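note to self — DONT lose this again. spent like an hour looking for the file last time. sequence + predicted structure for the chain T wanted, 156 res
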Amino acid sequence: MTKAKMFDGYADAYDQWFMTNSNVFASELKLLHRALHNIEKEKILSIGCGSCLFESALHRQYRIQVKYGIEPSNDMATIARKRGMTVKIGDAETASLAKESYDVIYLNGCSSYIKDLSSAYQNCHQALKKGGHLILLDVPVESAYGILYKFAAHVG
C-alpha cells in the first residue's frame, strides 16, 4: 500500500480521532510548540502535514504560522488547502525542495511511515537555510507512549 493510499479515505477520521482524544492532541501540540517557539521561523515547511490540523492550532493558539506542506495523501492535502496551507503532493524522500529555502523543516509523527529516512533527511537538509533547523517529532512504536497508542487502538 502506498503512503497516499494509506491515508486517502481516512482524512476526516484522522481529525476526528484527535478531537475525541483531545488530551493527546493538546500534549502533542504543546510539544510541537516547544520545539518551535525559540527559533527563527520566518519560513516553515511541514513534511507529512496531513490535514493541517496541528498547523491550524499552532497559528490559533501560539501565532506560529506554517504556510507550506508536503503530503502524500490527496485527501489530507485537500483538507490542508481548505485550512489555508500551500501543499505539494509528495513525500520526504523525493519531494522537489528548493535549496536553502526554509528556516525550519519539521516532521511531526511521520518518520515511522518513511521507508528511506536517510534520503528523506538529506532532502530536507539541502532545503534548509544556513543555520536552519530540522525538527523530528515522533512516537516510536516501542516507546511507552507508542505502546499506549497501540493498546488504545486494540481496545477501541
